[in-house]
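Re-run with default settings, no changes from the original entry. Doing this only to confirm the output is reproducible before filing.
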Amino acid sequence: MTGAPDLREADLHGSLQDPVLGAIGFLNEVMDRHPDAISFAPGAPHPDFVQGLDLRALTDRFLTHLRTDRGLDPSRAERVLYEYGPAQGLINDLVTEALRTDQGIHAAPEDVVITVGAQEAMLLTLRALYRDAAHDVLAVADPCFPGIVGAARLLGIPVTDVREDAAGLDVEHLAARCRQARSEGRRVRACYVAPDFSNPGGARMTLDARHALLDLAEREDLLLVEDNVYAFTAPEDGALPGLKALDTRRRVVHLGTFAKVGFPGARVGYAVADQRVGRAGGTRSLARELADLKTMVTVNTSPLSQAVVGGLLLEHGRSLRALARRKADRYRSNLAHLTDALERHLTDDAPAGVSWHRPAGGFFARVDLPVPADLALLEVSADRYGVLWTPMRQFSLTDRGDRQIRLSCSYLEPDRIETGVRRLADFLRKEAAG
């Protein structure tokens, strides 16, 4: 397109100039530019899990549920799929039953809102909680999933970083951030945290740290926005209760998605928001408030998508654990292949300053480098060595990620992981000398 511009960048919302908005799209773009490279970039589910998925059969299973369990006549049940549907959702009862059975989260259907993926749940939650952006601050683990930071940027909410290491969010550092905010006449209104195998760091909080975080939230009068999308990858004998399962004081808003345990194309997520909101004439759940906001954002989540997800839950005994079991086995196996390959190819002659972390679950492993892991270095890796990774600086509000890369293993077969790590080791030996 040529000619004079119709709009000026300076006249558009400032978030459009924030690099975090391009962080997610970047992964797809770099893969398109280097289609022959082995990519450790996307944190996508393995494609095998959508092979042979019968959407019609799953929808029919949900229709049977509407007729037999909810008492709808056949014509009314069919219409449910073709109408707008309630903003709060159609499958709330199935989601709450699965959360109660598998995760120990006790919530009523009216305490849940079904969203267009977890991303909408983040946006709605922040919009509801942040009345005064000049006064209220969002704390996030650093490094952090860019979706929550991007949502905050869209809403003009200030963000502060809290250190995260292999043991998860640093609770003492969050307490220090709360004190700092008070000294500036502000408050930390909420903190975003992924307690199990966070994206991108792969960190996991201990049980003691989870209790300490909940106690801090009570003392500081802040809410915890829990994103526990990768918790299902933990070995069943090594599972830890999520923050919401431990929450006795309604300090946690729990966000979830069916992108990883189901399939991402459904675009179905949820928020468990059982906090009571005082209104004239009584109280109602925060989830109801989120549903009101949702009517002005997406109106409702696709009934057809909800029917497919509902069918998946019904076909697996109304259990998230049963739905996720085969996938969890694959992802743990892939992660073991990745970390074992790093051990084999980098232990003996890795350049000084190269090290890696071995998380117990999730999709990701981090590698520390002795040199800046920037886009220029990524281009060298892709062009000359045929391997892609993600710079960790895209996930950080500070410089902590400048010399780190993220490797994702979820999308690849074991032989591709092996070849990719061999290429990565060659790249690091020749290009990443400090």
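The first strand starts at residue 38 and ends at 39. The chain has a mean pLDDT of 92.
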